[in-house]
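Review box. Two proteins, two foldings.
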Amino acid sequence: MAKIAMITGASAGIGEACAEIFAKNGYNLILSARRYGRLEKLSKRLSNDYGILIQIMEVDVQDKEDVINNWDKLPEEWRHVDVLINNAGLSLGLEPIYNGEIDDWDKMIDTNIKGLLYVSRMVIPGMKENKFGHIINIGSIAGKEVYPNGNVYCATKHAVDALSKSMRIDLLPYSVKVTVLHPGAVETEFSVVRFKGDAGRAKKVYEGFDPLLANDIADAAWYAVSRPQHVNINEMLIMPTSQANSVFFNKESN
């Protein structure tokens, strides 16, 4: 059987781009997301284009029981995952902490931290047993620094950075690789979700400069995974040329 890559948040953006590049390189895929229709459409296209096998998991990573039940339904031969890409994540709102919506905080913590942990807990034992595997966690520039009104989102991505470093240590005796990718501004559905469907406001985030694209981050994930076994890329901080950090951009004046 070909190697298996499991990708969360695979229905759009970075997750979909990762599915494309790993399928192109012959990996069978476990595609996980909440939007079954999008997963089904993506699965059919990738299967037809690359002749790979695909399992779909309609799952909300915030829901521990949903994660466990979907994992338990997988055929045994699919549970030995070679590459796990923890991509599912989101940001909600952009308010100072004294105006923050508590429900938004809960959703970010439940998805970005607990969801990553739930999925990892299912997959890692098989990697440990095989003494082989690679975990790619999708972090953010928000996990390396903070910016105004980013508060809880930044905190969750700092947690992803810390968990990645901890995974690296815990899995060191088992030859399981761990990489965290920290993108800057990537034009995906990220800002539409952050602004709760306000596409006009989301579009303004990327005006005046060329942001990263989902494929740029997928390329980085593939680069890390395709290194020789003795090479581990611990982390990458990936920015658009026009972005120095979370605050400073070189934008064309309108």
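Next protein.
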Amino acid sequence: MDDLTLAIIDGFQHGLPICANPWQAIAEQLGCSEQQVLQCLQQLEQQGALSRVGPVFEHSRAGASTLAALAVPPGRIEEVAARINALPEVNHNYQREHQWNLWFVLTAPDQAHLQRVLENIRRDIDLPLLDLPMLTGYRIDLGFPLGQRSRVPV
């Protein structure tokens, strides 16, 4: 991994600039061009090493959310994952090795909207679904220090 990519990943796991042009702000902090920052991020995405850049919100202040899981037959996993991913309320989903093998997080403006989405999934996908709303929140300030001069707290 080149020095610029390492600096972007390490330096902005926390404290992503909140401004009209965060890529320019990152570039200014790192002494490079905005285009170089964008190229690094695009390369990481193309390599499958990056899936998202953006803030993580306190879900209880942004509406309603839940963790959900489906028990999907192996032959349907790709189809069902694609249908789940197509929903605007889905933040991310992932496959697990378990009877409940497709897990995803839903976020909606309010609880009524969230329940409608869950009911639509139950009806349209026609598979067992677990709704696992968070009862107690824990803040995990997760970061991965990279390089010897990392700014990420351990």
